[in-house]
Amino acid sequence: MILMLGQSRILFAMSRDHLLPPGLGVVHHRYGTPYRITIATGVAVALLAGFLPIGTLAELVNIGTLFAFVLVSIAVIVLRRTRPDLPRAFRVPFVPVLPILSALACLYLMLNLPADTWVRFAGWMALGFVVYVVYGRRYSRLAGAEGEAAAARATADRGARGG
């Protein structure tokens, strides 16, 4: 249930950034929640729960969550290096040791999942890549002038830091 709520927020952010159609991220006028995304996520989860064994679903949720943790662990290191001036609500201690250990622990757990879970995971990743190439790459906010300006700022920042 908690992962479902988190997924709807991730999809909401993606629609706000135009990686998914912005109409999906419409916020309810009274409750202030992204109701279309929440309903779509609920329907998708209900269909998957109705047609797949619970063990298969658990393995898919596990590999997806672990992969997200690997990416976050790596992002901590990358952002510390590329954007040291970025305001942070909290700081991760023992960088880069702790994020590296975190990524390795998650990878170890992922490697202990069955091979068919990896095949399903690859399928979901391929589907996500297709959605990005077909829709998100063209319509995302970064695809427009804003993206070009952000890329120019990042290049200028790297040049100013000498790296």
What's this, in brief?
By secondary structure, this protein is mainly alpha-helical.
What does this structure look like?
The protein is mostly helical. The protein has a domain at 1-51. Helix content is 72%, strand content 0%. The radius of gyration is 19 Å and the shape is globular.
Category from helices, strands and their pairing: mainly alpha
Question: What is the CA–CA distance across the termini?
Answer: 44 Å
Please state the average pLDDT score.
Answer: 88
Query: How many strand elements?
Result: 0
Q: What count of helical segments does DSSP give?
A: 6
Give a quick account of the main beta sheet: strands, pairing sense, barrel closure: none
Question: Which regions have little confidence, pLDDT < 50, spanning 5+ residues?
Answer: none
One letter per element, helices H and strands E, the order comes to HHHHHH
Fraction in beta strands:
under 5%
| Shape label | globular
CA-based gyration radius: 19 Å
Give the helix proportion (percent range). over 70%
Question: Which helices and strands appear, and what pairs or packs with what?
Answer:
Blueprint: H1 2-16, H2 35-51, H3 54-82, H4 97-111, H5 115-139, H6 145-161
Helix pairs in contact: 1-2, 3-4, 3-5
Give descriptors for this structure.
163 residues, mainly alpha, 6 helices
